Amino acid sequence: MRYGTKDVLHGVDFDVRVGELVALLGPNGAGKSTTIEILEGFRTRSDGEVAVLGVDPAHGDERWRAGLGVVLQSWRDHSKWKVRELLGHLGRYYPEPFDVDELLVLVGLAEQANQRVGTLSGGQRRRLDVAIGIVGRPRLLFLDEPTAGFDPQARREFHELVHRLVDVERTTVLLTTHDLAEAEKLADRILILAEGRIVADGSADELARAVAGKAEIRWTRDGERFVHTADEVEDFVRGLLTEPGEPVRDLEVRRTSLEDTYMAMVHKQEAGEP
Ligand SMILES: Nc1ncnc2c1ncn2[C@@H]1O[C@H](COP(=O)(O)OP(=O)(O)OP(=O)(O)O)[C@@H](O)[C@H]1O
């Protein structure tokens, strides 16, 4: 993808399977929004091939668009509407919308059904954004930094909602986030984008193993603290526990975190390493 004379995406090539939740990670300016906007049909690509629900987004019609869910911060324009009325109204634009009461329960807004949008809390408004994004029962949902600004409780509730959408509705989700714990918790697969290229593609575990297969093992024995890195954790721990001598205490096994992996992958790309 090129803006003017500047190429911002290079050979970005990936497939998302039905029912999969894929997280797109990357530093600021990596090209996440550009990628998502091309897939949503909001931005015309300068080159390459794209198919979303079997259709080129540059030529997607109304029916195609009805299969997509896009979560925008749209509530601000609707502050005088009551929650139930707004969802009922928006649902009429789709061929097979959610039943409004079912949707309110799904997103956890049943108690706020008759409240005006302008009186909802930040977390409740974000749930309403999601409800608006999914009112047409999309097959594919785009979530762009969905929990930015959430408190821990609202974040947890939002994660449960996304899990329900994937498990119960079989919705396919493409999510961007800067929250690595969120990606690790939600995503079946993680794509890391750096400088417009995909530098990693796999589950959180697979990515961690690709960077460093080792795990760090810590323990205390006879009042002394020990740290060791090992490839074969189970073998090492079994040996440790069956060794004669003082008992092992405070045993901890720490795998490479997604943050370690992410930093290593992005740094490698930025340093121009193969
Ligand atoms: N309309 C535009 N015209 C020119 N350049 C643009 C335009 N939109 C984005 N860019 C450039 O394209 C690159 C990718 O931007 P993009 O917004 O896709 O990144 P991002 O990964 O979503 O970043 P962030 O995490 O900051 O949201 C950046 O270098 C940005 O400056």
TrEMBL record:
<dbReference type="InterPro" id="IPR003439">
    <property type="entry name" value="ABC_transporter-like_ATP-bd"/>
</dbReference>
<dbReference type="Pfam" id="PF00005">
    <property type="entry name" value="ABC_tran"/>
</dbReference>
<dbReference type="InterPro" id="IPR027417">
    <property type="entry name" value="P-loop_NTPase"/>
</dbReference>
<protein>
    <submittedName>
        <fullName>ABC transporter ATP-binding protein</fullName>
    </submittedName>
</protein>
<keyword id="KW-0813">Transport</keyword>
<keyword id="KW-0067">ATP-binding</keyword>
<dbReference type="InterPro" id="IPR017871">
    <property type="entry name" value="ABC_transporter-like_CS"/>
</dbReference>
<keyword id="KW-0547">Nucleotide-binding</keyword>
<keyword id="KW-0046">Antibiotic resistance</keyword>
<feature type="domain" description="ABC transporter">
    <location>
        <begin position="1"/>
        <end position="220"/>
    </location>
</feature>
<dbReference type="InterPro" id="IPR003593">
    <property type="entry name" value="AAA+_ATPase"/>
</dbReference>
<dbReference type="GO" id="GO:0005524">
    <property type="term" value="F:ATP binding"/>
</dbReference>
<dbReference type="InterPro" id="IPR050763">
    <property type="entry name" value="ABC_transporter_ATP-binding"/>
</dbReference>
